[in-house]
Amino acid sequence: MSIWLREEGPARKPRLSRERIVEAAVALLDAEGQAGLSMRALAARLRAGTMSLYEYVRSKEDVLDLALDEVIGEIEPAGPGPWREVLVGQLTQNRQVMRRHPWVPALTATRPLLGPNALDRSRRVHTALAGAGLSGFELSAAVGAVTYYVNGYVAAENAWWAAIRTPEADAEIRERVYRHLREHVAELATLSQVEYGDFDGAFLLGLDLILDGIQARLPAKG
Amino acid sequence: MSIWLREEGPARKPRLSRERIVEAAVALLDAEGQAGLSMRALAARLRAGTMSLYEYVRSKEDVLDLALDEVIGEIEPAGPGPWREVLVGQLTQNRQVMRRHPWVPALTATRPLLGPNALDRSRRVHTALAGAGLSGFELSAAVGAVTYYVNGYVAAENAWWAAIRTPEADAEIRERVYRHLREHVAELATLSQVEYGDFDGAFLLGLDLILDGIQARLPAKG
DNA sequence: ACGGTTTTCCGTACACCGCACGGAAAGGTC
DNA sequence: GACCTTTCCGTGCGGTGTACGGAAAACCGT
Question: Are B145 and B214 in contact (CB under 8 A)?
């Protein structure tokens, strides 16, 4: 019988796969946050039995590791250019990915990043700074300074955003947070960051400070 | 009847209190990690019924918030001195607290730090940098640069440490991590950090880079 | 075409979780 | 002794991750 008339039924190749699971996990994490990712919910989204997932994944931890490396892969490689611009571009993308997927910072704080995409992106930062002239222990420290700054910054940014943009009582909680800070922190000027939420500018300025410090260590060139 | 002869029995004042709960929570988190903190386990450690805890705390989230601010309170205020030394001392203490309580970075990545101790310690960093001569937006960015660096650094450090110092198969996993990195990362020099674990030196060097960048922004003074 | 092996799927069950509810016990006040 | 408030907590509900073992399907040598 022709393929056009045949009852196609369920596809003949395995219905599940690691890729499908990871893709669904990312979608679920984006939609519901880390608390919303349960193996049951994940399986339901794939129209599969819960235990079927375990054919492709040893544990929920595996799913999280894979989902994390998957979204890290969204960071596009920056083209060639002056090292500072390359780094600013690369790290801005880091930030954007973490903003798109707000569950990422909490995961990176828990596990070492050993996935292929994570290693690749880290290597890019290394080579950018090595190209600038750093090496050895100083190179290692500079890489740490910028990447940890970015991770930490976006983690805090997301936490604030989540606390302020809570679904209900939006305005009231915002007001309460602000009052809480006003009562306890002396420098009101620094609050403007929270008040106006110029997170982009603060991010870039902080990054610039760090890059200044790195630049000062470069072997003199003129 | 004299107090010496009276049967003292269970104390007559409330057996539980918020302080006792928080203290036990910190001890439990230190001993078993975040996964080991359940309301049942916490109550058992206090020889109380599970639901008794809810007389003093609205939810498990509350317990985590309180435990976090409690250990942040362990950071001792640094005495007066040159701003760089004050900051290095303060932030080194930040790191030590997070090393003593490895569950802290994951929590800070999830929630805004609004507790009294957190606000106080953050204010100290602010005033140190304000005393150095920064203000306004630059001050805010500089505070972010150093604190996020510290948080991120220790989070990564703890994650590595946990992955390598896993209870069983210590040496074998260590070897496997190392081989994994050697296969995927070009610059072996940067691996010395992992190999020898000179986390102290790397931490201080990275911090120095950032402080250099901050110092360059200070209004000229001589 | 068929028996046997391997891969894929998943229902059931267990031990654990946070916490809503409502009642028991104890202390304080007239 | 009656009443009220605070403290304690047993029970139960709806959720979790995943071990286990069996059913179903796909593949393969004959």
Answer: yes
Nearest C-alpha neighbor of A157 from the set B195, B109, B217? B109
pLDDT of residue A222: 44
Nearest Cβ partner of B136 from A152, A189, A217? A189
* Contact across the interface for B185 and A123, Cβ inside 8 Å: yes
- In our burial notation (b when 16+ CB lie closer than 10 A, e otherwise), range B66-84 reads bbbbbbbeebeebeeeebb
% pLDDT > 70, chain B: 81
With bands split at pLDDT 50, 70 and 90, how would you rate the model's confidence at A137? confident
Q: Model-level pTM?
A: 0.89
The Cα B161–Cα A42 span in angstroms is: 31
- The amino acid occupying position A16 is L
Instruction: Name the residue of chain A whose CA is nearest to B214's CA.
Output: A209
List strand D contacts in A 54-73 (CB < 7 A): 54, 59-61
Token pair, residue A2, equals 């022709």
Q: How far is A188 from chain B (nearest CA, A)?
A: 9
